[in-house]
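User: Structure with iron/sulfur cluster, tokens only please.
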Amino acid sequence: MEKIKCLRCGKCCWYPQEGEWNKKNSPWLPCRFLTVGINGVSTCTRYHKRLGSEMGPGAVCGRREDSIYNYPGCPFNTPDKEPHPFWSKLEKV
Ligand code: SF4
Ligand code: SF4
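Assistant:
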């Protein structure tokens, strides 16, 4: 079976500025370790030490499978999760 690969869109590397992960109107910001190349492919500058790193005030990096959300186009989406409150306003999840 073919292994599912991350598309490196970076959408799971944003956190709610006001710390309110479930609030639809909370502004979201990119993690301080996220960089996006001119080709649109994102990179984590702390990839091998990412888990537990502070993304920004009140937010810590965790495993993708532990996220409670689905993200637009993410191959790791599962039917039991809800669309991400920030990205689902901009793109179809
Ligand atoms: S949302 Fe999915 S495809 Fe995008 S960076 Fe995260 S795991 Fe990869
Ligand atoms: S530390 Fe985590 S949230 Fe931040 S860019 Fe790296 S993988 Fe994404």
